Amino acid sequence: MALIFCGFAPLMMFTGLAFKIGEPDFPLVPVLVAAPFIVVGIVVTAMGIFTKDPKGSARRVGAGAALIILGDLLIFGIRAAIV
What we know:
Layout lengths: L1 H17 L10 H21 L4 H29 L1
Helix pairs in contact: 1-2, 1-3, 2-3
Keywords: Membrane, Transmembrane, Transmembrane helix
């Protein structure tokens, strides 16, 4: 569950900052690039949590973790490169 939170929280934070009205422009590019990786990672991790087969579950959770970490690195890395 913490893995899903670690993917969901930065995505929602950056999306909220990108659509904040009345503030200086916050680029939407990091969200658009990283969101597919994070969303797919969350789905794969959730499927792994509810899988009955232990090997399949471990494989799916590992793949989901890799996708979420990649998405988080992209979202923070692109933001750092833009600033």
